Fold this sequence. Notes:
By secondary structure, the chain is mostly beta strands. It has 3 helices and 21 strands. It has 2 domains: 3-224, Acetamidase/Formamidase-like domains (Jelly Rolls, Sandwich); 238-302, Acetamidase/Formamidase-like domains (Endonuclease I-creI, Roll), CATH 3.10.28. Helix content is 12%, strand content 37%. The strands form 4 sheets. The protein has a 9-stranded mixed β-sheet with strand order 1-5-17-7-15-18-19-21-20. Strands 2, 4, 6, 12, 14 and 16 form a 6-stranded mixed β-sheet that branches. It has a 4-stranded antiparallel β-sheet with strand order 8-9-10-11, with no helix packed on it. Strand 18 and strand 19 (239-246) form a beta hairpin. The longest helix is centred in the last third of the chain and has 20 residues, at 249-268. 42% of the residues are buried.
Amino acid sequence: MTTHRLEPDEQTVHRVFSRDLPPVLTVDSGDTVVLRTLDAGGLLEPPSAPGVQGRRIERSGSGHALCGPILVRDAEPGMTLEVRIGQLRPGAWGQTFAGGRDTELNRRLGVADGPSHALLWRLDSERLVAEDQAGRTVRVRPFLGVIGLAPAEPGEHSTIPPRPCGGNIDCRELVGGSTLLLPVAVPGALLSAGDGHGAQGDGEVSGTAIECPMDVCELTLVLRPELSLTMPRAETPVGSLTFGFDADLNEAMAVALDAMVDLLAQRLDVDRREALAVASVVVDLRVTQVANGTWGVHAVLPRGALSGRGY
């Protein structure tokens, strides 16, 4: 197995998903890619003050600054790509923005008008602490907001909404030590990643987390031809996750729960009614994010929640 390195530059950074983007790296199943990523805005340097934008890599599209695409040899539609997330080390700074955008949620909260409020964070990756300009500190728990594959439809696609092949999932549980399973939609899979988050709450309620560059993102890519999925799934330190994405939060919840019922029925070798009964006792439903137009919900089967016969 080979370890590859990918740096963000004019050739490797893009702001759309597309099956037509030429790959910047080709790997074999089992290879590891160590990426350095810019923040979602593509900034090349930390802001001089909260909300002040500096030099950045300019690309067409209004989405996230992503590294890739990475082609995985022998990947074909119908397969699953297993993304094993290793070391994640954030950069030294990050930003969080709130308000100042005309969205339905911001209007409901009364913060759509006027300027956005910006927090500028200093991140200490050794102590795992972030401090903003007011001296408030939070625990750093880094993850990538975007890990996704190119969709099957031709043309350019926004990086903002999550899709069945992944993308802007914004799930705070996808920390180092997690495994994300993504349905392959195009030959070669064409994986892109970025949108580093130093910390985030479930929901990402302002629309941003601690948006930061990542100095190290270690991803091992393994093809799973025997596994066919229609939506992403994950194994994380907190437990097994299934996801649902939809413009209707109720439907997103139902998609995530439907996948979890399938997962439990398979693991327990029972029918869906029995699996749903078990799920009602042990499975948690969490709002992943309400920030991306297509809302996200993840169902969590906590690690150690089930034991005994058949599990």
